[in-house]
Specification:
Blueprint (H helix, E strand, L loop, with lengths): L2 H10 E6 L5 E6 L6 E6 L2 E7 L9 H11 L9 E5 L5 H9 L4 E6 L2 H10 L8 E5 L2 H4 L11 E6 L14 H8 L2 E13 L4 H14 L1 E7 H4 L5 E8 L7 H8 L4 E4 L1 H8 L18 H4 L5
Parallel strand pairs: 5-6, 5-8, 6-7, 8-9
Antiparallel strand pairs: 1-2, 2-3, 3-4, 9-11, 10-11, 10-12
Helix pairs in contact: 2-3, 6-7
Length: about 300
């Protein structure tokens, strides 16, 4: 990279720091959207936040999860949510803004990341967001007992660098998640995969084995396995409201596709349920897909 290009990128940097393992964390201004900040961890963009408008969701997969959140209960109704993986706390901010009074728990492994985000992107003072440090799977066992059977939303967005760790992809893990959900509870899982979609298909099969009803949301070309990207899998222990599906499709971002019912069964197509004994991390994308050059 030439010095001029590096200088331009540095002009966008708000703050830099490092995690305990040496990974660089950078908060930088978005080049195209005024007011939007991007959190980059070890070269991989992780989250985007607009403090002046927390309802503005940058990444497509985050917008899709936001669309799911909008359909839980009545519009504006407070919910109980658990977020596994913090990033820049984009979705907890969104829930607070769109559903005031919601009670939220966030679990994040990297305490330095949480401290960095809260320093440079502070949370609203009245937000009922409790952040807990620790491994997402291990922390499920130490959440307040009152949450069991009462949670409306669990978001699973756990990454180590650009990959999803194996231990948060298994039937044993998802059974722990399922124990939290109330009667209308929804789990939304961010899955990253590439051509062939073997990892995503395995995750869909695993969620179906635990929850029964599953749907997949993504850009059409990603669901066809033509390029690497994010697929949002949503699941519930009760039947997903069928009226959600056209509304989710219409909400975008476009081009969008919602896979459910028989089409989801065809998508899974014999993929094995993932267990603790068989789990592997998600595939590593090529550096040019998600990662950005280091300054």
């Amino acid at each position: 990279m030439d010095g001029m290009a590096e200088s331009r990128r540095d002009d966008r940097v708000i703050a830099r720091s490092k995690l305990a393992g040496g990974e660089e964390i950078v908060l930088e201004l978005d080049r195209f959207r005024p007011g939007m900040s991007t959190l980059v961890v070890d070269g991989t963009p992780q989250s985007q936040v607009d403090l002046s408008d927390p309802t503005s969701l940058g990444f497509e997969y985050i917008q899709r999860i936001g669309n799911v959140i909008d359909l839980i209960g009545d519009e504006g109704e407070a919910i109980t949510a658990v977020h596994l993986g913090a990033g820049a706390l984009t979705l907890p901010r969104y829930v607070h803004a769109t559903r005031p009074g919601s009670r939220q728990q966030v679990v994040e492994l990297e305490q330095q990341l949480v401290d960095f985000v809260r320093e440079h992107l502070p949370l609203p003072r009245d937000a009922q967001i409790r952040i807990r440090n620790g491994d997402a799977r291990e922390r499920l066992d130490s959440l307040p007992p009152a949450l069991v059977g009462s949670v409306d939303l669990v978001v699973v967005d756990v990454f180590s660098g650009a990959r999803i760790p194996a231990h948060v992809t298994t039937v044993e893990f998802y059974r722990k998640v399922a124990s939290l959900l109330g009667p209308r509870g929804i789990v939304a899982v961010n899955v990253a995969d590439g051509p062939g979609l073997a990892f995503a298909r395995g995750q869909a099969a695993t969620l179906e084995a635990v929850f029964g009803d599953v749907a997949a949301l993504a850009e059409t070309q990603i669901l066809k396995g033509r390029r690497f990207g994010n697929i949002v899998l949503i699941a519930s222990p009760t039947e997903l409201p069928i009226q959600w599906l056209p509304r989710l499709l219409a909400a975008g971002p476009h081009p969008a596709k919602v896979v459910a019912g028989r089409e989801l069964s065809e998508f899974i197509a014999g993929a094995s349920v993932v267990t603790d004994a068989s789990a592997v991390p998600s595939p590593l994308p090529s550096r040019g897909i998600f990662q950005v050059p280091r300054g």
